[in-house]
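Two proteins were folded this term; both appear here.
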Amino acid sequence: AAAVLVAVNTAVAFAAWNGLPDGAGVPINVLGLDGVRHVGVSRDLVWLMPLVSLIVTLSFAVGARFNGIAAAAKPYETTLVAVVGLLLVVEYALVGRAFDPAFDVMRPVAAATGALLMAVGNHLGKARQNAVFGLKTPWTLADAGVWDKTHRFTGRAMFAGGFVLLALGFLLRDGNALGVAIAACTAVPLVAGIAWSRHLASEA
C-alpha cells in the first residue's frame, strides 16, 4: 500500500512538472542563512514529497527487519501507510498552490493529519513492548505493564486529538490557526503519554 501511494505521489509530481506553465511553481518564502528573506517559486519542489515518501517507506522497510518489531507489527504498518498517505495529501496541496495561488494548503493538510492521528491512535494500544516502535520512555521500557497501559492511553488521546483536528480542518479558515492546531493536536497526546507513563511507574 505504501509503495502504491509513493507511485501515485510520483505520478502527481510528474503531471505537475509537465503541466505547470512557464514561471509557475511551488511558492517559496524562507529566511536564508544570509538573513535575507527569499520569496519566489520553485518548479523543482513538486518532487520533494515523492522523495520524502520514498525515504520514509525505505526506512520503515529497514526497521521492519529489526528483532522485536513483530510485537508492534500492526501499529507499525498502519503508521507507515498513514504517513505516506499524509505526504500524498501534502503533495496535492503544494501542486494545488502551484497552479492556483489562492489554493488553501493548510485545510487539507490539517484534515489529513487528523486522519493520520486517528488511524495510528486506533492501533497504538496493540503495540507490545519492543525496542523499535512506540513511546519508549525509561518507564515503559522497564515494565511491560506500564508499556501496555501507556500505549492504550496515548492511543485514545491521539484518536481524540485526530478527531478534533479533522473537524478543525473543515471548520477553520485561518492558516496560522490551523498550523497551531496541527502542532497542538499532535504534540499534546504524546506529551500526555510520556507524563502518564511516569505516573504509572510511580504507582507501581
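Next, the second protein.
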Amino acid sequence: MSKLDRLDEQYRSHHRERRSEEFVFCKPERSALFREWVGTGRRVLDLGCRYGALTEAYVAGNDVVGLDVDRDALAEAAKLSIETVWGDAEEPLPFDPESFDVVVAGELLEHLRFADQTVSEIRRVLRPRGLFVGSVPNAYRLKNRLRFLLGRPPESDPTHLRMFSEAALHTLLDGFTDVQLRYVAGRLTPLSRRLFANDISFRATKP
C-alpha cells in the first residue's frame, strides 16, 4: 500500500469517527476572515480542503482547486464545482510554478511532519505578490497548558503532529512579507488572545 493510500484510509476513518462533513473548527470566525482575505477573481489552491465546508466561504467568484488525501471527502467537495486533486500535501505539489494567486491551508500545518517543506512548495506555486492564507489551532492556549500540568496530552487529536505558537508561525513564514496574525474564537479572547483564543489565522504575501 502506498503512503497516499494509507493516508486516505487513515483520514477517512478519522473523519467518519470524529468529524462530521459540516464540522469546521472555529468555522464562523475563519469563514468570514478567509472570505475577506481571499477576495474574488483569484485562482485559489485549497490544501486539505476535506469536504469543502470552509471552501464554500470563498468559492464564489474564484477558480478553486482543492487537494486532499481523503478521496471520499474530495467527492463531496467536488459538488461545489471546484477542481479536486487527490494528493498528499507533504509531497511536491502537482502544479506548475507561479500558478495560483492564493493558497489556503486551513487547519493543515499541524497535521504535517515537515511543514516547512510544504510551505516551500506553497511559495513555489504562488505567483509574485500571491497570498498564503491559513490557520492553526492555538496550541498553547490556557486550556492546553492546564491539561499538560494535569499530566494529560495537551492535544487530543491523534492526527496533530505539530504544535504552533505565534513565534513558531513567524519562523515558518520566514521569507514572506506583510505577515498578519489574527487570534480568533473564544469568549475570553479579549482578556488575553494568547491564553484564550482557540485559533491563530494568518495571511502572508510572497515577495
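The first strand starts at residue 43 and ends at 47. The helical segments are 3-18, 27-38, 71-77, 115-125, 142-149, 166-172, 193-196. These notes refer to the second protein only.
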